[in-house]
Write a structure and sequence with these properties.
CATH architecture: Up-down Bundle
Strand content: under 5%
Shape: elongated
Number of helices: 7
Number of strands: 0
CATH class: Mainly Alpha
Structural class: mainly alpha
Number of domains: 1
CATH topology: Alpha-lytic protease prodomain-like
Order of helices and strands: HHHHHHH
């Protein structure tokens, strides 16, 4: 997806405001996902639910992605760290896709037999409400700032939203109708999306346009963009 920056119209003061917003939303995302990971891993272990365990590990991956952006924007010149941040985000997507795929296949072949978890249902529902809002805010801010890594991290958050929906459907289907395979099928779709977004984040390293715009060294070209 092309990322076109409006940074030509940004003043130094506006860039500072946007960078503070990025740091804020990343901090909230990290805090939420730490809580989410603990609850999901504990409840998943108690219910022998691979879906919940996978969701908890996804939250750990989300923390890693958000931390990469936090690390980037903690620097005096965030653009200098963008390439490394994009690589970390891309690898976190790939790791998420690999784990979710393995767990999904295990569920489909009957290796995993998740039990009903009320805590898991509540957690998935809450995550489905919170994560899209965080993703929207970070993506909007990142696009205005011209930051490929912030936009990529917002997509990681959105993937977490999809996984929340898959978890909610899977746990509900298992609890109501005994369809233990439902979350496995949805998880495979999520894995495919994660791979696609990981590839986009990885190739985003070549997009030097947002980096130069942030430093004020050049204005954005009308036909340039960034894969993120």
């Amino acid at each position: 997806m092309a990322l076109h920056s409006d940074s030509r119209e940004l003043t130094a003061e506006r860039r500072d405001v946007l960078q503070r917003r990025i740091r804020l939303v990343v901090a909230i995302t990290i805090a939420w996902n730490v809580i989410e990971a603990v609850v999901a891993l504990v409840s998943g272990g108690m219910a022998s639910s691979a879906a919940l365990l996978g969701f908890g590990l996804d939250s750990v991956v989300e923390v890693l992605s958000a931390a990469a952006v936090a690390w980037q924007f903690a620097a005096p010149k965030p653009e200098a760290r963008e390439r490394v941040a994009l690589r970390v985000i891309a690898l976190s997507f790939f790791g998420l896709a690999a784990y979710v795929s393995v767990e999904a296949v295990a569920g489909l072949i009957g290796v995993r037999h998740p039990q009903h978890s009320t805590v898991g249902l509540v957690l998935a529902a809450l995550s489905l409400m919170v994560m899209p809002c965080l993703s929207w805010f970070e993506r909007r801010t990142g696009r205005e700032l011209g930051s490929a890594s912030a936009v990529a991290d917002s997509k990681q958050t959105l993937i977490c939203s999809y996984l929340s929906a898959a978890l909610l459907i899977g746990l509900a289907a298992n609890a109501l109708w005994g369809l233990a395979w439902a979350d496995s099928v949805a998880a495979l779709v999520i894995a495919g999306l994660a791979i696609r977004e990981g590839l986009e984040a990885w190739h985003g390293e070549a997009c030097s346009q947002p980096l130069a715009v942030l430093t004020g060294e050049r204005e954005p070209d009308s036909d340039a963009g960034c894969c993120a």
